[in-house]
Amino acid sequence: MSILVIAEHDNSELKQATLNVLAAAKAIGGDIDVLVAGENCGAVGEAAAKAEGVNKVMVADNAVYGHFLGENLGELVAEVGKNYSHILAAAGTVGKDFMPRVAALLDVAQVSDIMRVESEDTFVRPIYAGNAIATVKSTDSIKVVTVRPTAFDPVAGEGGSAAVEQLDVVKDAGLSQFVNEELAKSDRPDLASAGIVVSGGRGMQNGENFKMLEQVADLMGAAVGASRAAVDAGFVPNDMQVGQTGKIVAPQLYIAVGISGAIQHLAGMSDSKVIVAINKDEEAPIFQVADYGLVADLFEAVPQLEEELKKVL
Amino acid sequence: MKVLVAVKRVIDYNVKVRVKPDNTGVDLANVKMAMNPFCEIAVEEAVRLKEKGVASEIVVVSIGPKACQEQIRTALALGADRGIHIETDEEVQSLEAAKLLKSVVEKEEPKLVILGKQSIDSDNNQTGQMLAALTGMGQGTFASEVVVEGDKVNVTREVDGGLMTVALNLPAVVTTDLRLNEPRYASLPNIMKAKKKPLDNMSPADLGVELAPRLSTLKVEAPASRQAGVKVADVAELVDKLKNEAKVI
Hints:
Number of domains of chain B: 1
Largest sheet of chain B: 9 strands, mixed
Mean pLDDT of chain B: 96
Organism (chain B): Marinobacter panjinensis
CATH topology of the largest domain in chain A: Rossmann fold
Number of helices of chain A: 8
Largest interface: A-B, 93 and 78 residues
CATH topology of chain B: Rossmann fold
Distance between the termini of chain B: 57 Å
Shape of chain A: globular
Number of helices of chain B: 6
Protein name (chain B): Electron transfer flavoprotein subunit beta
Number of domains of chain A: 2
Oligomer: heterodimer
CATH class of the largest domain in chain A: Alpha Beta
Low-confidence stretches of chain A: none
Family (chain B): Belongs to the ETF beta-subunit/FixA family.
Helix content of chain B: 25-40%
Function (chain B): The electron transfer flavoprotein serves as a specific electron acceptor for other dehydrogenases. It transfers the electrons to the main respiratory chain via ETF-ubiquinone oxidoreductase (ETF dehydrogenase).
CATH superfamily of the largest domain in chain A: HUPs
Domain Electron transfer flavoprotein alpha/beta-subunit N-terminal (chain B): 23-211
Order of helices and strands of chain A: EHEHEHEHEEEEEEEEHEHEHEEH
């Protein structure tokens, strides 16, 4: 078997999600090649070559891939991937965008958001917002698969020495142009890969109050998230949303503040190692999944938490 | 400009999903069904484009059993002009749905196709992108804003870390994210009027598409449940437990 993994990156750094996807590739077994498509992304290619278990890295460095437009990536990956048995990418917004195009161009099905590899053609994935878990078998000759990064422990990012080759394949579908982007600038770690996540819900009452959570998060080097209720209420932007319709996280420690624990939120965080819930409603469903529950008014508990953390950290 | 909207009939999002005891799937007997929430947002966006004078006609299409006509009627009540029902009792997977929709696109020649980014049953997030690839159209996935200007559509997309805007040549495919709009409710007079709007019925064979699923579901299980832990008395105890028992800080 031969597996093509599409690297997730921002043209300068290889994202950790790629190492998680490589772990899924390793679980399938076979030769693993990595494709890095981007613009001025040579450093990413070098980083991918150091990852554990990589056979070969191909770098497609061209302006047409600079903004990861799905139309162009779809054509590139379908062309490069047609000789592989598996094509894998992280189920982030880039992978979710271009991978179904790859599958359609190759006339194969896609298996989305896998959590486990059962065998080379059988995968486990969540359906119904994680309320059911399906085991699906693909009969296609090429398996196009997106991988839920948090479900796989990453392979080592150092120690490998794969060959890096330049790929002179330029696919410009001519259907779309990048206009602009507004990325949240933050010194905090990325929500999807952070070791600790502090999230707020409707109980936060407004966006201003999220500053309390940010202060606690900064003490611990944590990312800040939110429930869909907090996003729908306009407290914080959607890219902070943890849940089935937002980001799926599985940190070492997840602290849910003023979050009731709707099913759709639990689907996004219940794989966290340790869950803490702070809520004044002791009947809140979040307590049913929390390792440590504190029934308290968050406006008293969060400042106290900040003080206590300052003592021990 | 003609807008095509695809809608899917799914289990109502408020219903607690139960896995069948024999692990063959999810129990749908006597369960409330509804239009997929992301599809409602797609219909709403099309109706708003029509209200702005950008869209001239809204065609709504759904694939599935006879009962899908309820969701098509709902879309007609919300403001769509006519419906197309591709009737089948077979399981339709994303690639086949995309092929069926491609045939409809070739017949109807819409300038814009709007779909939900994913359905809340299979959670695949594939059909819109596959349709775009099969028809050679550009795609604005996970849209939070859609602005049609001349022969282009600017789509602002919800991406990891923020927002990204792309300009797509028309015709194009847009898939909706949650914040694109807040769907309206259908009024009673509009529900009555919707009953008289035209609804075409056809089969996959009429569209020249053979249903041949590539994925088989071997089993469906309930997720592993997490045990509730302990309640702590105060913040000091919480921090102590996190540091000395769980060792996560």
